[in-house]
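Lest this sound abstract, we let one protein speak, letters for residues, whole numbers for local backbone shapes, and leave readers to judge:
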Amino acid sequence: MKGIGKNIFIFLSVFSFFSLTIYSPSAAMAAAKADKAVKAAKGGKADAGPKVHAAFDVNKMGDMSDFDPANPVIPKGDTIKIALVASFSGPAALVGQIYWASVLWAAHDINKRGGILVDGKKKLIEVIQADHMSKPDQTKKICERMVLQEKVHVLWGTDGSHLMKVINEVANKYKVIAINTAALSDDLMDATNFSRYAFMSSFQTDQIGRGFAYYYAQIKKKEKKFYILCQDYMFGRAMADGFKKGLKEFYPEAEIVGEDYHKLFLTDFAPYLEKIKASGAEVIYTGDWIPDAANLLKQTRQMGIKLPFAHIFLDEPNFLHEVGVEGTNGLVQLSQYGTENPAFKNREQIKYYKTWNDLWKNKWKTAPYNSRLFEHGTGNIGSYISQTYWLLSVIERAKSTDPEKIIKVWEGDTYVYSTGKIMRMRPCDHKAIQDLHIFEFVPPEQQKVSFNIEPYYWFQGCSNAGPTFTIPAVKVLPLMDQKLDRCAGKDNWGAY
């Protein structure tokens, strides 16, 4: 029987490989590489290798010539409704606009292809703004209105793990699918907070922290003194905890010389920066996001502190250009969207990038979409777009808006981004498994190694991605809460 099972697995693997080759050649090669790597990490066990179910095929991309996030094409009729739950007012409004452009791009593309066949007929994708104003009570209120009045099929969120927690609770109460693309706290999917209707399609704080620790211990092998400065809420503290766990695991000789937490939307970082200057730190580790990340970087450089940052939100050109080449040189960015350099490795990705860049340059005239921030569809924007494509691919393959059918497809699903990056949804706790990639920032003349096609000029006024290092998934698998019944008895891949 074991021999028969093995033969069946080999057949299915070969079948899926050739199927994917027809669908997307570059993605097929990436998937085959991933299969081999994962199996090797598990000592050759067949059940470790992900069977690829779908991939983004840019050659099927619809006509994007009329896409403008400031003037969206509103679909009519019976639609698949996605509520984009984010900040569209207040200090984090820009974050909501980043999400809006990203989700709308994927929706526009699918609509231009004619939509998705679900529930027996073709339907277009409708994206609705749902402003949570960065407030938990408003988040609950707007999500319930989206579900009960607008009859949305998906809650798409969001910045702020404390806010995503509320979204997941609403999703669980009303049995609506929630996709978490940007709130990264592991606690969101632990035994206490888990909802089978929620999916964490991004990386998580534990992966991030351990990934950085692995990089400094096993790759960089230089800096040993770290100062932790994070926002004082669920996400910020989880970011710090993940890094501390990673240092204990991979770099026990390292030293944390200081640790602080600040309120959200802080404007004056001077008290914390004075402590950092006096600490003897060699690296500042932080999880701050816009606008805090921008203010922190600018004020650090204004005070003459030239220390590198270990960070995940350092791909925003607007504030990078404010501190220039010298101010950004040496920064370290951990990316979900990226892969090994060069950044543009295949024709599919180049076509996708050029389509986005040409529209930005020639069509988008309304702020903030005409700013440097939206110049390229890579980085965090690329991640949000890709996760939206993954969601829509799952719905398409489920052939239904029924949450139960969507869950059945998404649990254990493996999807390939336009970059060739492979994502696998762990069935038991709905956390995404993936390799991570760390970029060291270098001056513009060295960026051609990474941005190997024209134009790469968006970073000519600052340092950005240079040497890239892969952190294999096996080294930083997301935490699995064994108290969660669905995960009991399973290994960290989600297999028995």
Notes: The CA atoms of residues 228 and 259 lie 5 Å apart. Confidence is low (pLDDT under 50) at residues 1-48.
